[in-house]
Amino acid sequence: MDAPLPLKSRPVRVAPPMLDRSGEPAENAGVRLIGRDVFMIGIGGCGMSGLARLASRLGARVGGCDGQFSPVTEALGKDGIGVVPEADAKSLPEACDLVIASAAVRETHPLVIEAKARGVPVLRYAEALGELMRRSTGVAIAGTHGKSTTTAMLGATLVDLGLDPSVIVGASCSQLAGGSIGSPVFASPSGHRVGAELIPAGSYSGRPGLLLAEACEFNRSFHNLAPTIASIASVEEDHLDIYGSIDEIITAFNAFARLLPPAEEGGYLLIAHQGAHREKVTAGVKAKVETIGFAPGADWTVDFDASEQMVSLSRKGELLARWKSRMPGDHNAMNAATALALAIHLGGDAEAGARSLAQFRGIDRRCQWLGDRRVSGGGAVRVYDDYGHHPTEIDATLRALRGREKPQERGGRLICVFQPHQHSRTRFLLEEFASAFSQADIVIVPHIYFVRDTEAEKHLVTAGDLVDRLRDRGVRAMHLYPFGAIVEQLENLCRENDLLVVMGAGPVWQVARDYLATGPAPVHASVHAPGSKA
Hints:
The chain is α/β, with parallel strands linked by helices. Helices cover about 30% and strands about 20% of the residues. It is built from 17 helices and 21 strands. The protein has helices at about 45-55, 70-80, 110-120, 125-135, 145-160, 240-245, 245-255, 280, 330-345, 350-360, 390-405, 425-430, 430-435, 455-460, 465-470, 485-495, 510-520, and strands spanning about 35-40, 60-65, 80-85, 100, 120-125, 135-140, 165-175, 190-195, 210-215, 230, 270, 290-295, 300-305, 310-315, 320-325, 370-375, 380-385, 415-420, 440-445, 475-480, 500-505. A 10-stranded mixed β-sheet has the order 8-7-9-6-10-11-12-13-14-15, sandwiched between helices. A 6-stranded mixed β-sheet has the order 16-17-21-18-19-20, with helices on both faces. Helix 1 runs parallel beside helix 4 (about 125-135) and helix 9 (about 330-345) packs antiparallel against helix 10 (about 350-360). The longest helix is centred in the middle third of the chain and has 16 residues, at about 330-345.
């Protein structure tokens, strides 16, 4: 295996300028966090709270507000980062050099308007994350699917390997702080971790500390990052309200890949051998590029035995590691293999990394088993929660869960409650959504979750349109709302040995938890409310 070039003697690179949506330098590209009074709007999200802790460690004086108090905001307060309810934040603090707003905060927010009137710079979450990456060795995980899972897997693995990374991931993981091997079974979940200021070991030893984060393509926000190392999984049609076509999406991923420094400065890209339009995405990239995939022609070759849940990773024909995965499906096998390949590139031991990945239990809302809900007459319904909101994710998750749980072998059915996320996504990908539920016996669809779209878009497609398409394909489907009515229907519908999967990026997770709560004590449950994204 080729070792990365030694980095201690290399010059610290000058990061490329942050770009706005048009490709021009961002207005606030010169803003720095260190030594400033920073106020964060929406500080309680997974990404924002992690950003707050990292900025605080680097010397910023941080406070903020959030629309709802949670264990996350409570923990921030205990660590000296003041948080006030958003309703009580009538104005910015007198001492305020910089405002950071979450992606969900609109330009019309009163505090954003006040900041601009006072001449206080306003950064979005991704812009601020890019600033932190400029002071770190950034590792950005990109792709249409698998970003959160891969980031958490890699973070926990690097902890076990002694590389002490900082991590920001858009979901909660109980093994992020202490590693997959070192964390207690019921450790508190977190969406972030603050690691070493310098990389303590491995190929990049002595460089600024590792900072792992998801690189989200929505609104081209990943163009604000400054990674040294990156991975790109599948590149598919999504966020078509922003991009309009797959060609524009490919162009955006290419622009992201070109942010990486040249190979001689440590730049490295690991991209899917298939499904990522890699020839176009890597055009003009000066970083070292390697591919990963199930195909034998990939630089890093992955094999997955679904019957045994065994994953193996080879490089140039040499078997590096083999481990049994706790997470179902070939998509999670690929996520884990990607994490291990990146860990090896960073100088981690392959077999030790595989031992870590074999103990990885997953993250909230990604194929997450919540509990077994007892039903009248004996037996139980197994309940899962999942964040899937794109057709490819839905199909992969349902196939993986049916393959693992095999409800059909015990006379059970796979029942899916799916809440579409955004009217525009539902309209653009309606036929793909209708084809994604072939593994489900029954599908219940609540109202489409209305977020970001215009009122006009809201009237162009309904949940009933998806139900009609599903019925045309022979899937038993129904539209029900509100969530309470769905829970009542599940009470009547579910029977012994059924598998219930609740899916969607909106608040549909409440259905699974309410269904568990209305029954007898579950066999097992992990039912804390999930954290929000940045």
